[in-house]
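Record type: monomer structure entry
Structure origin: computed from sequence
Chain ID: A
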Amino acid sequence: MVKLSVIVPFFNVQTFAPDTLRSLSANSRDDFEFILVDDCSTDGTPGVLERAADRLPGARIVRHERNGGLATARNTGLDEARGEYLAFLDGDDWLAPGHYPQLLSVIEELGVDFVRTDHVQCTGRTRTIHRVPTGRRGVVLRPREAILPADRSTSVDYPYAWAGIYHRRLLDRGLLHFRHGLRTAEDRPWIWRLHREAESFAVAGLLGVFYRRGVASSLTQIGDVRQLDFIRAFDQVIEETSRDPDADALLPKAVRTYCAIISHHLGSIERFEPAVARALRTMSAAAMKRMPQDLLKDALNSMDDDRAGRLRRLRRRPVPAEVAA
């Protein structure tokens, strides 16, 4: 019986993959498996994985014939997973020794659907602790109650799939798969669905995940068209939340967050290629027209003048009919 399946996508991370794999070795157990998904890497990553797999107990390599992105790679791992519990790690991040056994003990002791953890963000030599925005630690909580309030950072604003551990019953219920093909913001509809549909969760104050920020090949650093997938991701959040029995209470939070993300991208639009910047403005304006207009108005009124003004100007932008649909 496999107790824990760890899903680790890799794509062109030959520089960082050895650290990731060494940290998995320091978290191995006889009843753990590590599903290493090579998302059609074109550098030396496949060779790194081959050499490490022989030394990493429970390692299995799954290869994509073409690159599908992080969401699709994680789904491949989920389809292969045999464990009672599941966890994620990205191929350029790493773990403290013994983190997964600790995390497993927490979820087994509390008996919840999933557990979320704090993490350490690493930018060059700088280390910054990021906390789950939920104050109560080590107790059983209702995921739905952690979505609100709309005007504060909450658990759905901490979407990182690798900051936690998940019971297999969530996979069996269809709650752990990601939307195929999303290249960025893939974890936003995922965390919203988890908090709407799961029955219990907890927060553990463990600092065992080290998230590498500012990697040149990361999509968060690249201003190409793949960045615009955040619009598809948040459209999904709005659509699915609008069908929820508590839609009237939850949608203001979803709309407000969507607007904040649009404003964030507009505020750093110079990093995008010119054609992508134009598409960002047009697609974002269309997205605002699709939102519930009364909730959009409330969201803009709640923002500071700079962000609200930026979005109001965008809202007036003409949108071609084929984009608005």
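Annotation 1: The radius of gyration is 20 Å.
Annotation 2: The chain is about 40% helix and 15% strand.
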